[in-house]
């Protein structure tokens, strides 16, 4: 069944964290009131979206307290979410980001799944930090950011650790033309990983579990999907602030349903709206919303 994304976003925007910013307090209240009206067709749409079990494969802890984040997840019906805080460059900084994530997953062990952020330029410290975080129950590395491309040999010891630990690796990826073709403008650092970079590293380490961050994260999403079409076992998450019509349908057509993972990258309502508005069967919607990612968690033994 196909849903209207515009209606979905208008309805859910009032229910989540950014309500006041999206449409003003009075508009938000009026939408919320409408949503409580059982005769309003939008009520069914929101309830229907909330009824699906969901695991967010790419989330970030952005609220001052994890309690607020859980409240936001509850409002849109996300049962579990990965979290990371990819902030800080020095070992002291990335350790303190990870400390916040560890505290949150210990407070909400059934709701939050931790990902360990490191800066691989500090090779020894990053490896130590990854061992610490995985040892304390995080599910994998992520979101690995723009300091170094993922196919740089400096990542070798981290990738080998993740293979040994059966832990996934989420990578921030963009497909801006400027990163691929010299001479074109690009606002991302040139050390940002591209889709081709993650495909290359997956060929070198076929047993590793790589997750390509955000199909809507910037750049040419059609190109991303085409490159991934023939790549071995790279998962693609559905997040990113770009939410062009047909993006998820196109991704399904190019790379198949089994490698797509529902994700929000903090855009909770947009992230859900993308999946609800795609032309998917019930079975396929469930695969994207949680089953595909659960199969990755199963490998690490997380129920
Ligand atoms: Zn990212």
Which helices and strands, and how do they pair?
Layout: H1 5-13, H2 19-23, H3 25-35, H4 41-51, E1 55-56, H5 66-76, E2 80-83, H6 91-107, E3 112-116, H7 123-135, E4 140-144, H8 156-165, E5 168-171, H9 177-180, H10 195-204, E6 209-212, H11 221-229, E7 234-237, H12 247-255, E8 260-261, H13 268-277, H14 282-299
Parallel strand pairs: 1-2, 2-3, 3-4, 4-5, 5-6, 6-7, 7-8
Bound molecules: zinc ion.
What does this entry look like structurally?
With 303 residues, this protein is α/β, with parallel strands linked by helices. The protein has helices at residues 5-13, 19-23, 25-35, 41-51, 66-76, 91-107, 123-135, 156-165, 177-180, 195-204, 221-229, 247-255, 268-277, 282-299; strands spanning 55-56, 80-83, 112-116, 140-144, 168-171, 209-212, 234-237, 260-261. It has a single domain (52-299), classed as TIM Barrel, CATH 3.20.20. Residues 1-29 have low confidence and may be disordered. The chain has an 8-stranded parallel beta sheet with strand order 1-2-3-4-5-6-7-8, with helices on both faces. The protein contains 14 helices and 8 strands. The chain binds zinc ion (ZN). Zinc ion (ZN) is lined by residues 143, 172, 213-214, 217.
């Amino acid at each position: 069944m196909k849903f209207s994304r515009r209606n979905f976003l208008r309805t859910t925007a009032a229910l989540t964290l950014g309500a006041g910013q999206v449409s003003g307090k009075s508009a938000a209240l009026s939408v919320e009131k409408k949503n409580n009206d059982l005769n309003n067709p939008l009520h069914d749409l929101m309830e229907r979206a909330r009824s699906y079990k969901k695991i967010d494969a790419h989330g970030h802890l952005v609220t001052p307290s994890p309690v607020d984040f859980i409240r936001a997840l509850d409002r849109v019906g996300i049962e579990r979410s990965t979290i990371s805080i990819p902030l800080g460059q020095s070992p002291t900084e990335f350790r303190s980001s990870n400390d916040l994530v560890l505290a949150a997953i210990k407070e909400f062990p059934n709701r939050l799944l931790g990902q360990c952020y490191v800066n691989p330029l500090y090779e020894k410290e990053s490896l130590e930090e990854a061992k610490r975080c995985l040892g304390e129950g995080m599910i994998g590395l992520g979101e690995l950011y723009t300091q170094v491309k993922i196919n740089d040999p400096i990542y070798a010891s981290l990738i080998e650790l993740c293979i040994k630990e059966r832990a996934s690796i989420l990578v921030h990826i963009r497909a801006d033309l400027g990163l691929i073709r010299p001479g074109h403008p690009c606002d991302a650092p040139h050390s940002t990983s591209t889709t081709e970079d993650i495909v290359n590293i997956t060929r070198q380490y076929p047993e590793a579990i790589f997750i390509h961050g955000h199909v809507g994260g910037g750049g040419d999403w059609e190109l991303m999907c085409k490159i991934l079409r023939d790549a071995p076992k790279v998962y693609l998450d559905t997040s990113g602030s770009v939410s062009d019509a047909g993006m998820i349908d196109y991704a399904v057509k190019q790379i198949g349903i089994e490698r797509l993972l529902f994700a929000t990258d903090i855009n909770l309502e947009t992230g859900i709206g993308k999946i609800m508005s795609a032309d998917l069967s019930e079975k396929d919607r469930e695969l994207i919303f949680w089953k595909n990612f659960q199969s990755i968690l199963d490998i690490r033994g997380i129920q």
